[in-house]
Amino acid sequence: MPMLIVAGLCLLYLGWLVGKPYYVEYRRAQFRSRPFPPAWLTILRRRVPYYRLLPADLQAQLRGHMQVFIAEKDFIGCAGLEVNDEMRVTIAAQACLLILNRKTGYYPKLERILVYPGAFMVKKQEVDEAGVHSEYHDELAGESWGEGQVILSWEDAVDDARFFGDGRNVVIHEFAHQLDQEKGVATGAPILARAEHYRPWSEALGAEYLALRQQADAELDSLFDYYGAEHPAEFFAVVTEVFFEQPQEMATMHPELYRQLKNFYRVDPLSWR
């Protein structure tokens, strides 16, 4: 009898494993089909100007993705900040911009978004060329961890949404890292649709990354923030910001890079202007 009980429990567990993806997608479809709260729409229109640029079908898709995102992710206030719908909607809209028109798991490794009132301090370590370890504190507007969380400054998140078009957006930056981290360590090469896409991706982004490093060393003007020259993962996040915020400039000055990002994100921000 005990063996029968164990066997039954194992079958139930296997059934749960097989059925879980279907249940998750059913639940997400339910969230997407719900009427979008009017109060959220008011926040979206006021706080996130680019929403008005999107065609109607992408607006509807974005609203549906936001409802899933807000239902599944925990928003946690830090340093005394009390999270409200203004924050959830503003952050979710920018995060979900990156998953339009794409098969998505809604950032499957992400469990929570920690929100600080403003820039926050983090302790960092580095090793110099002589092998000497040192610790220092750095002030950040955002950070993406592979262990299930994104940390954001609310002040920067709302300002970057308001001034859409300047090539800087901390939410887009950190959620680009989340896409990159879906496969494990962020390398600047997120999961692409097909194996044959990796070579042209590597060639285009690798050449542009080296060019930015040279521009940074020589202190030459660049469309991209020099922060992208620190690591290929940072380069991917930086150029993602520019792709969504300054598509005309990127398409004109860096056409192959723009084409690779357009293929990956499956949207063309040039058409939204």
Q: Concise description?
A:
The protein contains ten helices and six strands. The strands form two sheets. The protein has a four-stranded mixed sheet. Strands 3-4 form a two-stranded antiparallel sheet. With 273 residues, the chain is of the alpha/beta class.
* CATH class type of the largest domain: Mainly Alpha
Global morphology: globular
What is the number of independent domains? 2
Determine the strand fraction and express it as a percent band. Answer: 5-15%
**Straight-line N-to-C gap:** 69 Å
**Largest pleated sheet:** 4 strands, mixed
Uncertain spans, ≥5 residues at pLDDT below 50? 6-13
How much helix is in the residues? 40-55%
Protein name: Zinc-dependent peptidase
GO molecular function, one term: metallopeptidase activity
GO cellular component, one term: cytosol
InterPro entries: MetalloPept_cat_dom_sf, MtfA_fam, MtfA_N
Question: What is the topology?
Answer:
Elements: H1 2-33, H2 38-47, H3 56-72, E1 74-77, H4 85-96, E2 112-116, E3 120-127, E4 133-140, E5 142-145, E6 149-153, H5 154-162, H6 170-181, H7 198-218, H8 232-245, H9 247-253, H10 255-265
Parallel strand pairs: 1-2, 2-6
Antiparallel strand pairs: 3-4, 5-6
Helix pairs in contact: 1-3, 2-4, 3-4, 4-5, 6-8, 9-10
